[in-house]
Design a protein that fits this description.
heterodimer, A: Ribosomal Protein S5, domain 2, Heat Shock Protein 90, 15 helices, 26 strands, B: alpha/beta, Rossmann fold, 2 domains, five-stranded parallel beta sheet, two-stranded antiparallel ribbon
Chain lengths: 705, 207
């Protein structure tokens, strides 16, 4: 132990470098407090209070009842960069044995983010003194002494002293941060409250007591307020998945959610162990009514319903201390809302769901938090993990569709019943009138009333029908536009790269023509520029055709149509080395909407192109023939095929392995939707191209009207 | 004997044609076969890692097509293995780069960014600048010196460490090229610089 007298402590590194690191890693002040709370957790604290003095006093205190620090702890650990005592040890001391959450050893520099001065007050159990260390961050600005020498940061001394106490039992640490850089408003505190409420998973892995309190001298609503998890009792639907060992097969399994659209029930199925390891998950969905109830019960806290949180060993991994107040600007790490704009009608967004995903260090070691704590490192396992979560969420979009349909049906039934009852009543009145003609005059107002009620009901019913049709029409237009996304990405890329190449070739002419040395290049480039321009013309013409599209049906020669659709992809086919085969038996004329049909084929093609990446002898084959009263088409490729565990989901909207590439994953869903709109079916059958591949069978009825 | 190692310009871009005017300009500048084009990132990475003993400038496109990694991931992969290859980020849509991507480029010392739809006049000077910088580095100076030895000598034992391990000139160069990945490489580099400074300071040698 050092002499118990007032003295000074020096940092054991270049503090300025460290401050830079600290600032980079601690992206905002809410993250900063979060880091400090994490340290309290790691110190076996049972309780931590974040206390804000009034605005004028500019002070925050983070006080815990944890293990406290000795002089040596401060000298050899707290003030030494890179010496992270937690790295060697995975767990905090007895009795809690908590898994350490602050791994980087940078939490201490969070105080630098908050205010200029720091006073550490700490005490170990059994000690008869409090140790106090004073750090003034402003002392660490580069200083030049009078004789022109640069003062090293390690030369700055920090005062420390001891304060005696008779209470040997007390232990803990207080970080008193003064001269705050920012003003903390009640909104900021609410944000902090919201983020801290996610710190500990309310369900899993939280075996030891850890309570967080906010305390504000200024705002009454935050006076000794215990931070609690968002309420989930008002959710309209919930689901839970876990993992285990199948007793019969002795094989470990992961549960995954599915929806039965006949019974309207969510159920679980067993799937093999995912690449990212086993996970547990609880999901709470709030439909419109549930959200209304929630908002009434928790005024001004509607943004507590804010999506999926991932917990590692019971402690939040992400989204980690989000600072953004504006929901639209918050990070969407799992990409949930990114999908929302594409289908606002049925997709589940982060504002409708609270989810708790539990991972562990041992089981899910390939899921790694990024250093700034705002995301995960992009590994194949993490991508699979993200996709798995979104697949689970998609079950609720099916719930949404199911409920909407049911409501519609109930409404229709309700109207039909009401109209039937009104008619019945009119009939009764007529009978009364026939039996009692003397009442005819008296009954006139009643008859009139009934008639107008009947007319109003009919009008309402019609209105309702129209509204629904309008909804479907909009949905239809919306989905038509949506399919443009893939094409637009293709187009933008094609145009951009071609324009760049043309520009360089033209530049070559400007710089070198005439020069016999380059004659071969001049000729080559002239041809290339010409063909590139023709391609660009085709591409833009095709794009423009969408601008004048309508929903009319017309007669289409199948062979011609298919050839023209495939032609658009000539460039890609050439680049990817894909052979195409179009086989149409007889002279088939389809009566269909051209755009719908084009979309079906384009989506299948673009799907196949993706599937064929990296394969040898790439083939895409289309064949069509008429049989009885229907057309049958086969669309095949010799890609890797679709594994059996994915076959159930491939037609689901946004079910894709290429979200990151902007692929969208709408392709097969559009195929299915469009084929349905043409009253046909689509299914995945045994692959016709061997040894591997995928074959879709499309059946369309004759539709000559 | 040859005293200068030929430079290699490695282009990783799914849309780059092998007769692009930029290639002609680069080959005129750095010699025939100085440019290697890879349409898929994995092959490009493989080439770079197999040729760590060459002087390499990489032009790396950000958007490498559907089903492929993006440029930033490829860049990270290259950096995990070597810090000494000079990488220029190429994109037709530079403003679309995210802050995280930019941060990654800066932290991993990308040399520059260029617009892939710009002309040769704009992009060539940037590439030439990268090559010049490359020529001025310790590993490259050492490389030039090593090349003055005949190929057989380069494989012979050249240096024995105190621990007893023996290294040939080529092995020394390889370790240095691994940059921060190799403690030994760092040690060699630092020792060479220290010795050079010392020799100059003692005026045993002059420049």
């Amino acid at each position: 132990m050092a002499d118990q007298k007032n003295s000074s402590l020096k940092w054991r590194f270049d503090i300025n470098v460290l401050r830079l690191i600290g600032r980079e890693l601690i992206s905002d002040r809410i993250t900063a407090i979060y880091e400090l709370v994490k340290n309290c957790y790691d110190a076996n604290a049972r309780e931590v209070t974040v206390h804000f003095l009034s605005k004028d006093q500019k002070q925050i205190t983070v006080k815990d009842d944890g293990l406290g620090m000795t002089f040596e702890d401060i000298r050899d650990k707290w003030m030494v960069v890179g010496t992270d005592s937690k790295r060697n040890e995975q767990f905090s001391p007895e009795p809690f044995r908590r898994r350490y959450v602050g791994e980087k050893g940078i939490g201490r520099f969070a105080t630098d983010k908050l205010g200029e001065k720091l006073l550490i007050k700490t005490k170990k159990k059994g000690h008869n003194f409090w140790l106090l260390v004073e750090i003034n961050w402003s002392d660490y600005k580069p200083v030049t002494t009078e004789d022109g020498k640069i003062q090293l940061f390690t030369d700055v001394e920090n005062n420390y002293w001891m304060e005696e106490t008779l209470d040997l039992e007390e232990e803990g640490t207080s970080l008193i941060i003064n001269d705050l850089y920012d003003i903390w408003t009640s909104k900021d505190l609410e944000r902090l409250n919201r983020e801290l409420s996610k710190f500990v998973s309310p369900f899993y892995g939280h075996k030891t007591p850890f309570k967080i309190f906010l305390d504000s001298d200024e705002y009454a609503e935050f006076e000794r307020l215990e931070v609690r998890s968002a309420a989930i009792d008002l959710a309209s639907h919930s689901a839970e998945i876990s993992y285990g060992l199948d007793e019969k097969t002795k094989v470990e399994y992961q549960e995954s959610l599915l929806f039965n659209d006949v019974s309207g029930q969510i159920y679980t199925v067993k799937i093999p162990k995912p690449s990212f390891g086993f996970v547990k998950m609880k999901l709470y969905f709030f439909n419109t009514e549930a959200k209304l109830k929630y908002n009434r019960a928790h005024p001004n806290k509607e943004d507590r319903i804010d999506g999926i949180r991932v917990y590692r060993d019971g402690i939040i991994a992400t989204p980690f201390a989000e600072y953004e107040d504006e929901p639209m600007r918050r990070r969407d790490i799992l990409g949930i809302d990114k999908r929302l704009w594409q289908d606002t009608f049925t997709r589940i967004g982060t504002r409708e769901v609270i989810g708790y995903v539990e991972i562990t260090k041992e089981e899910n070691s390939a899921i790694i938090e990024s250093t700034n704590r705002q995301d995960f490192v992009d590994t194949p396992e993490y991508r699979a993990f993200k996709k798995f979560i979104i697949d689970q969420l998609d079950v609720f979009s099916k719930v949404k569709i199911y409920e909407r349909e049911r409501k519609k049906l109930l409404n229709q039934k309700g109207y039909t019943k009401a109209i039937a009852e009104l008619r019945g009543t009119t009939e009764i009145i007529r009978e009364i009138e026939q039996k009692n003609p003397q009442l005819a005059l008296e009954l006139i107002p009643l008859k009139e009333q009934l008639e107008s009620a009947l007319q109003a009901s009919k009008a309402n019913f019609e209105e309702q029908k129209k509204m629904h049709e309008e909804f479907l029409r909009r949905e239809n237009i919306y989905f038509s536009l949506m399919s443009l996304q893939d094409y637009a990405i293709n187009l933008a890329h094609a145009v951009r790269t071609r324009v760049g190449a043309i520009l360089r070739m033209a530049e070559f002419f400007v710089d070198h023509y005439p020069n016999p040395k380059y004659d071969n290049h001049f000729k080559e480039y002239a041809t290339q520029i010409y063909t590139d321009m023709v391609t660009l013309n085709q591409v833009t013409d095709f794009m423009l055709s969408y601008a004048s599209s309508n929903l009319e049906f017309e007669d289409l020669n199948l062979k011609k149509l298919m050839t023209s659709i495939f032609k658009v992809y000539d460039l890609t086919f050439e680049k990817e080395g894909i052979q195409t085969q179009i086989e149409v038996q007889g002279n088939i004329t389809l009566h269909a909407n051209r755009k719908f049909f084009e979309e079906i084929i384009q989506n299948l093609i673009s799907n196949s192109i993706k599937a064929l990446k990296g394969r040898d002898n790439k083939i895409i084959k289309f064949s069509g023939f008429a049989e009885n009263d229907q057309y049958i088409f086969y669309f095949s490729d010799n890609g890797p095929g679709i594994s059996s565990d994915k076959q159930d989901k491939i037609f689901d909207l946004y079910y894709t392995g290429t979200a990151k590439e902007g692929g969208g994953g709408v392709g097969l869903w559009i195929v299915k939707t469009r084929i349905s709109s043409l009253k046909g079916t689509v299914e995945l059958i045994n692959n016709e191209l061997k040894p591997e591949g995928a074959t879709f069978k499309i059946t369309l009825p004759f539709q000559k009207i | 004997m040859k005293t200068e190692i030929p430079i290699k310009i490695v282009i990783i871009d799914d849309n780059f044609r092998d007769n692009d005017p930029l290639i002609i300009a680069l080959e005129e500048e750095y010699g025939e076969k100085s440019v290697e084009i890879f349409l898929t990132p994995n092959k490009g990475i493989e080439y770079i890692l197999n040729n760590l003993s060459s002087k390499i400038v990489v032009l790396l496109d950000m958007d490498l097509g559907e089903n492929e990694k993006r440029g930033d991931a490829v860049f990270k992969e290259i950096r995990e293995k070597t810090t000494l290859v000079t990488v220029i980020i190429m994109s037709a849509n530079l403003p679309a780069l995210t802050n995280d991507e930019l941060r990654g480029f800066i932290n991993n010392h990308a040399f520059s960014t260029i617009k892939s739809n710009d002309g040769v006049k704009v992009n060539l000077p940037i590439i030439k600048n990268a090559v010049n910088k490359l020529n001025l580095r310790v590993d490259c100076a050492l490389e030039e010196w090593i090349l003055r030895n005949n190929p057989d000598d380069r494989e012979k034992p050249f240096l024995t460490l105190r621990s007893g391990e023996i290294y040939s000139l080529n092995q020394v160069l390889n370790e240095i090229r691994k940059g921060h990945e190799s403690e030994l490489g760092m040690f060699f580099q630092k020792s060479i610089l220290n010795m050079a400074v010392e020799l100059l300071a003692r005026q045993k040698e002059s420049l």
